[in-house]
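Whether sequence alone determines local backbone shape is best considered at the level of individual chains. Part of our work consisted of pairing the sequence of a single chain with a tokenised description of its backbone. This step matters because it turns folding into a mapping between discrete strings. For completeness, the protein is quoted in full, as a sequence line and a line of structure tokens:

_____
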Amino acid sequence: MDGKIETQYPYLSDYLFLNLLNTTKRQRSKRMDFLVDNGGVEEWLKLMQQLKLLDFRQVEKLKELPIDASELQDFRVRWRGHLSQLEISEYPLESLAQYVKQVPLYFDSQLTPIPSVGGTAGLLSLVSFEMLRGAKEDLFEKVKKCGSAPCYSFFVDVSGKRKWCSMEVCGNREKAKKQYLKKKDSQAQQQQ
């Protein structure tokens, strides 16, 4: 992403589907769900448009029908589980294809996919299409969960060495914790 956008999301990706999966975070030992809290799906769509992951025509089409946050939550939970636990060959890609079959996409002159209907079905069709395209490009092999225990974010690890969604937040937190524990352990050994 080119510019910094102020947001309360823990991590923003260049991929629409990861941003949907990352619509949850832990704050002060409570789990926040951005699909229902802080403006809900409407604010998330605006943010995706600001990031240029959705364009005006896609968002307008999606708004033609209601978007059910609970269906998006179910999709998010299911796919967070798949990406956390399964081998790449075990991903249920056919379930993604079903979303696209139920709500076919058409493409404008810039080859932007636009769902044939709006609402929840249209959004899940767009997200599923992107996920299928990502699977074809072996993107799922590079998707990792952040190594920081309190973080729920997924990210794409292009280098194969990355541990955290963000060095600025999670990486610094984990390194500071490691340094603190090392210092504490050193002090305990000196007292013996």
